[in-house]
Amino acid sequence: MKIASLMLASLACFFGAGITSAAPPKVEFFKSDMVLPSPPPFSEAVRVDNMLYLSGTIGLEPGTRKLVSGGMPEEAKQVMANIKTTLEKHGYTLHDLVKCTVLLADMSKWGEFNEIYKTYFDGRYPARSAMGVNGLALGAQVEVECIAAGSGKK
Prior knowledge:
With 154 residues, this protein is an alpha+beta fold. The chain is 27% helix and 24% strand. The chain has one domain: CATH 3.30.1330.40.
């Protein structure tokens, strides 16, 4: 009987070890008219605790569905400006970025994009991936999605 009780207690400890009393993460979904006109069928950003996940951003003139003119350099500048605007709207900065994914309609423009991208950072760059794609929304030449970590507005 004593052995059976010890075995049951051990099993309870073993199976209960994975159970924690931590609260579930706080999740918030954000939309604004600052960059994207309403209502796109996605959130511009989602915050999970202190992490902010930004949807892919293209070089739209703020509040419109029109790409800026001027090709890759101007689109890249606008993409970064739109990311900065979205981050600041939710209490983050470019310094809070920890990961970016860059999608290019033409990989031969990778160097051109990099020349613009690096001007937005002080040498402390987020982790990053870049890939060529067969097409982007509205015929954009570049799209960037990012993840930020920081305090943000709660």
